[in-house]
Amino acid sequence: MAGSSLAFPELVKEVRRQLGISQEELAHRLGVSFATINRWENGKTTPFKLARKQFDNFCEKMADQGKLCLQDSDE
Q1: Of 15, 34, 38, 44, which is most buried with the most CB atoms under 10 A?
Q2: Which of 17, 35, 29 is nearest to 54 (CA)?
Q3: Which pLDDT band, with edges at 50, 70 and 90, does 68 fall under?
Q4: Which of 60, 52, 62, 51 lies closest to 3, judged by CA?
Q5: Is the residue at 23 inside a domain?
Q6: Which residues contact 62 (CB under 8 A, 6 or more apart)?
């Protein structure tokens, strides 16, 4: 999410950790492949705009439901 100071690979890992879901489950929820999530977490690729928007929207939805807390630690 835009407000997080984590690098994208760490952000993906943190989202999964807080939600208690696997890479496969996150992939299913975002409509991407397991391999895509794995590459994001390992820093081998970064998402295209559409996939990043889907990820951000998913994070916002989870945060709105109180299931996810990603704070900007810079301030």
Answers
A1: 15
A2: 29
A3: very high
A4: 60
A5: yes
A6: 15, 19, 68
The rounded distance, in Å, linking the Cα atoms of 75 and 71 is: 9
Q: What's the number of domains the chain is made of? A: 1
- Global pTM reads 0.85
Q: Is residue 58 part of a domain?
A: yes
Is 73 a domain residue?
no
Query: Which range marks the domain in which residue 34 is found?
Result: 8-64
**In this structure, what CATH number is given to the domain that contains residue 36?**
1.10.260.40
Does a structural domain hold residue 16? yes
Three-state secondary structure readout of 4-73: CCCCHHHHHHHHHHHHCCCHHHHHHHHCCCHHHHHHHHCCCCCCCHHHHHHHHHHHHHHHHCCCCCCCCC
Q: What is the pLDDT of residues 43-56, one digit of tens each?
A: 999 999 999 999 99
